[in-house]
Design a protein that fits this description.
single chain, mainly alpha
Length: 168
Amino acid sequence: MSTIGAFYQNQPYAAAFVTSTVKGVAADMVVASSTKRRRQRQNQLQAAQQHQQLVVEQEPLKALRGGAAVVAAVDQTLAMKRNMVTLLYSGIYQGMAMEFVYNTLFPVLFGSSILLKVFVSMFIVSPLIGFPLAYLVKAGVFRHHSAMGAMQQYWHDVRHQGLLQTYW
């Protein structure tokens, strides 16, 4: 058995944490890159529209350059917080907790019934544990909401944004 195979065999929770974190960070990087490109296109369009409306002077251009530095600093802070959410949620929940659920708990509860495992995962575990936990982790890191506020946001997204329909 290879060293990597032995690691996965002998340290399933550590392996699940590492694997899920790497996958989560990679997915987050793809989303962040796409979002950044979209935001840059929007900013370029807005800047072009503002440029047409403003009389070309040095002071407004200096203000725009200074504003870009502030936006870059805010973007970096948000990226660090987003990475922390990804690390915590991907590694601990999607990695370690799901290692236990899928490889220890589900086999005891459901035996070899794949259909039952999928059903419980999609209609019980994810809506009642996975998604709410993601909202709680995000609220804790970004400090936008209390735990109650995070749950209210989750319920709002379920009812009005079609969160679960999109997932299913």
